[in-house]
Amino acid sequence: MNEFRTPLIPCLLLAVCCLLLSCTQPADQAEPAAAAKPENKKPRIALIMKSLANDFFSSMAKGAEQHQKEHSGDYELIVNGIKDERDLSRQVALVEEMVASGVDAIVIAPADSKALVPALRRARAAGVVVVNIDNKLDEEILTTEKIAIPFVGPDNQAGAKKVGDYLASKLKAGDEVLMLEGIRTSFNGTQRRLGFEAAMKEAGVKIVDSQSAQWEMSMANTLALSMLSEHPNVKAILAANDSMALGALAAVKNNGKAGAVAVVGFDNIAAVQQAIKDGQILATADQHGGELAVFGIEHALLLIKDPNAKIEDRETPVDLITAEVLK
Ligand code: ALL
């Protein structure tokens, strides 16, 4: 019996202290993000990206960190990402952690165009500025939920069309190709599929199989291997990002088709740039990841200063990268 009685006194004391403390705390300070900030404190901006294993996001982080260094008097930067392209719940948790830590703004490249919306709505409700970069959030859901979140990013369909057109210039009507898609619930993944499809259709090239490798190199490698053995006559693989293009390239080599099956990607990461110079990958698209983050941060700074500022979406450039361009 005694062992139950001993902790009772400290517990009671703790409860009384908590009660006293909560009485002295004004109700409007209950939300961390609503807590009053000392006047001249620098705003804190959280950049939330996707898989840090993807070189595209390390360049994005570098661009943001460089900008912060050059504007260190204006804001503090917290850089976050997830380990796995598909780990949506970790990205949702990151949004929640950043809100709880009292950041002023979140600049996010969402891993999914729909699944992240509720967490971002809660962030907005807690007074946090939100700017969407890279992969656009679902417009329909944003409208239904009545939230306005500015978007900074490229026209992915146009970018993929440029890559597809370039590939088509090396093929002839009737040729067969394969496609590796990104995560199907991400808007930029869908847009790139549409761009590739349009280019192939215009050139009379047949897409004989198209599957999602979820933006990932190893999944792309496994899928491409089985697609290649099922369709031995294909002349090319169109991958919706460079990680998948590298996975596809390894599969092509493994299948003894090096040189006979062209590979194209999207992102212009360092390894693919090298593969283009070496003649192993035909083309990719540069969507300037570093600038994407910087433009997002600039939008966030404007909105922190004036939460009612009318901020327009910003379309960023996307350029075709080929061996000729890299010469
Ligand atoms: C997209 C990016 C990149 C990237 C992919 C993987 O949102 O635009 O193309 O490779 O995410 O997460």
How would you describe the overall organization of this protein?
It is a single chain. This protein has 327 residues and is an alpha/beta fold. The chain has 2 domains: 42-154 and 289-316, Rossmann fold, CATH 3.40.50.2300; 156-286, Response regulator (Rossmann fold, 3-Layer(aba) Sandwich). Helices cover 46% and strands 17% of the residues. The protein has a 6-stranded parallel beta sheet with strand order 2-1-3-4-5-11, sandwiched between helices. Strands 7-6-8-9 form a 4-stranded parallel beta sheet, with helices on both faces. It is elongated, with a radius of gyration of 24 Å. The protein starts with a helix and ends with a helix. Residues 1-36 have low confidence and may be disordered. Bound molecules: beta-D-allopyranose (ALL). Beta-D-allopyranose binds next to strand 1.
- Could you tell me the CATH topology label of the largest domain: Rossmann fold
- Assigned CATH architecture of the largest domain: 3-Layer(aba) Sandwich
Count of helix runs = 13
How big is the Rg? 24 Å
Mean pLDDT figure: 89
Please report the first level of CATH classification, the CATH class of the largest domain.
Answer: Alpha Beta
- The N- to C-terminal Cα distance equals 83 Å
Number of domains: 2
Number of strands: 12
Bin the helical content: 40-55%
Largest sheet composition: 6 strands, parallel
Strand order of the largest sheet: 2-1-3-4-5-11
User: Runs with pLDDT <50, length 5+?
Assistant: 1-36
* CATH homology-level superfamily of the largest domain: Response regulator
| SSE pattern | HHEHEHEHEHEHEHEHEHEHEHEEH
So what's the overall shape? elongated
Q: Beta-strand level of the residues, as a percent range?
A: 15-25%
User: Bound small molecules, which ones?
Assistant: beta-D-allopyranose
